[in-house]
Design a protein that fits this description.
The protein has one domain: Rossmann fold (3-Layer(aba) Sandwich). By secondary structure, it is of the alpha/beta class. α5 links the parallel β7 and β8. 40% of the residues are buried.
């Protein structure tokens, strides 16, 4: 399975067609509303899906990683993938969804200490980092798998940028998160507040950053329970 995912990555078949910078801003109504979707293992979900993810691997070198670099990455056939990047590919492989990577116009530093400083400053200032590309034909998708790491008991601020940029009204949002132990914190509630007219699955999947490498079957089982397996 992992080798198939890596082959797709290298061939470029996983990348959704993107339009270069120049995104438009939309401001969803900020209401405190949240609803859940069922998780019956035998249900079948119709409609097209999109995996949206933000991943921040702290190295591209599989050799001599320090602890923080190991925690933020998965190594497949000698190639380094970010934790959330790897999970996004597993979901894409098992659902047939399209995929979109959230990337900032100003790249984040890969050094852990510097990354912490930037992330802390963004959180303090409620920053909205600009995203490099935009999703084409968002209206064709019924379900958005939203995958992100937990940064300081919150979503990375660039996830806020995505939710502000796109109106996901009428869509189902399925959150997934990786973290060092904080789980989702209050991020599912935050997503529901940012996208009040979407259906937000309240029992999304959390995977510890130390267990991502061996979580493939857990991810597949969860996708099956949600009814999104292809």
């Amino acid at each position: 399975m992992k080798k198939r995912i890596f082959s797709l990555l290298m061939s470029g078949l996983l990348v959704l067609g993107l339009t270069a910078c120049g995104t438009t801003q939309e401001s969803p109504t900020n209401e405190n509303t949240e609803s859940s979707a069922g998780t019956d293992s035998e249900q079948t979900v119709d409609g097209k899906s999109l995996v949206v993810y933000f991943s921040m691997p702290e190295t591209t070198n599989p050799e001599n990683m320090n602890a923080e670099e190991e925690y933020s990455t998965v190594v497949i056939d000698g190639e380094v993938l970010g934790n959330t990047q790897y999970v996004a590919y597993v979901i894409q492989e098992n659902t047939g969804a399209d995929i979109f990577r959230i990337e900032p116009v100003t790249p984040y530093p890969m050094d852990h200490g510097e990354l912490e400083e930037v992330a802390t400053e963004e959180k303090r200032n409620n920053a909205m980092p600009e995203i490099t590309a935009e999703v084409e034909n968002l209206e064709q998708y019924d379900t958005i798998f939203l995958w992100y790491p937990n940064w300081y008991a919150d979503m990375p601020r660039i996830i806020y940028s995505f939710l502000e940029q796109y109106d996901l009204s009428g869509k189902t949002i399925v959150p997934f998160v990786t973290s060092g132990g904080s789980g989702f914190s209050n991020t599912i509630q935050t997503i529901a507040e940012q996208e009040p007219d979407a259906t937000v699955v309240t029992d999304g999947l959390y995977i510890s950053r130390t267990e991502v490498q061996d979580a493939e079957q857990e991810i597949i089982q969860w996708v099956n329970e949600l009814g999104y397996s292809k």
